[in-house]
Every structure is written in C-alpha cells, then in structure tokens.
Amino acid sequence: MHPESEKSKVNNPPRRLFTRQRRQLNDNARRQYAQSASLHLTKLQQRLAPHARIGLYYDGFGELPTQPLMDWCQRLGYLPYLPVVGSLGRDNQRNDDKRLRFVPIYQSKLINIPTRIHRLGMKQNHHRRLLWARELDVIVCPLVAVDLNGNRMGMGGGFYDTTLSKSYRAGVKKPLKIGWCYDFQVVEQLDRQPWDVPLDGLITPNGIRWF
C-alpha cells in the first residue's frame, strides 16, 4: 500500500466502547436526553412536506429513545414507519436479502406494537403493506458512532447501507438520512468504506447539524 494511504487510514474505535456507554445510562437519563434532542426537530420539520413519511426504528440496544420521534410524527401529521428485514418482510434463515422494507405504525406507543425478534436480535413488526426506502421522505438511521462528516458506524450488518446505496449512488436526494444519537457517539473521524452511505443530518441532545 502507498505510504500516504497508510498514513491517512483511520482506525475506528471499537463498537463496544459506545454500546457500553449507552447501556450504562438509566431509563430516566435516556428519556431526558431524548427530550433534549427532540427540541431540535423543528429544524428538520422545515425541510418536510405535510404528511411526510418517516422511517423510525425500535431503540432496543440502549440507543437514544425513539418514542419522542413517534410523538413528533403524531403531533405534526407525519406518517411513521418501522423497518423489516428480509424478503417481503418474511424472516427466512436462508434469505440473504439485506434490503429493508418499512411497515406503517398505527399505535401511539412503540412499546405497544406487537413484534417478533429477528435472528439478529432486532425487534420487527410484520405487515402486508410494505414500502421501499425510496418511498419514504426521511429515514432515521440507528448508529453506533458518527463522525463530523456524517459517516456512520452501524452495528455491522450493512442493512441500511444496502437499503440506501442505490438511490445514493444515483444522486437521488430522497429519502433524507438522519442520525439520532447521544453526543458521546459523535467522533472526529471514522474510516469510510466504498459501500458506506453517509448521513444528510444528525440530531443529538446538543443540537442539529447538516452535512
């Protein structure tokens, strides 16, 4: 490898560094951080049309709670959706399709939505009315870490990068890709792979930034 390439290579911090910090927070602290982050949603709202379709996710691994995002959708008339892994939403052990589809949410609380646990540990709801990512206006992407250029470190499964890569490579602006996380998950720089899809914006308890 060229010496300059070696010099510029970034060693990503281990995922466990961030997941451990997330799990050390108690429920009250998580709720307070999420409430602070939700105050910045008005700046995202300025970029959305009425009845925008918003892709959310279950915060099942100590992430910044996503219920405030759900509450925000309901207050403003946005249509919330949740991701489903696998071909047409069927959890098949032999299925290697990593593209996410999205199902509509009809309950007001995420905790009340009936779910099954995917083999990778993710909660998901099954429904016949599935949308492709390109049909959404916004996707709020889960992450382990994110850098100051919008590069995102996920859990390593590649589901969101696979789902969003085609529209990103084609230069399609929809859906808007938004990160939602604690401030300690923001780092200066992450190593970016050719297949990684960066975020368009990031919301943390301390504010919102656009990339």
Radius of gyration: 17 Å
- Secondary structure tally: strands: 13
Q: Oligomeric state of the chains?
A: single chain
**Succession of helices and strands:** HHHHEHEEEEEEEEHEEEE
Strand order of the largest sheet: 6-3-2-1-7-10-12-13
- On the 0 to 100 scale, the average pLDDT is 86
Strand content bin: 15-25%
Report the end-to-end length measured between terminal Cα atoms: 30 Å
The portion of residues assigned to helices is 25-40%
Structural class: alpha/beta
* Unreliable stretches: 1-7, 88-94
> How many helices?
6
* Largest beta-sheet characterization: 8 strands, mixed
Basic shape: globular
Task: Give an account of the 3D structure.
With 211 residues, the protein is of the alpha/beta class. Helices cover 26% and strands 21% of the residues. It contains six helices and 13 strands. The strands form three sheets. It has an eight-stranded mixed beta sheet with strand order 6-3-2-1-7-10-12-13. Strands 9-8-11 form a three-stranded mixed beta sheet, with no helix packed on it. The longest helix has 12 residues, at 27-38. Residues 1-7 and 88-94 have low confidence and may be disordered.
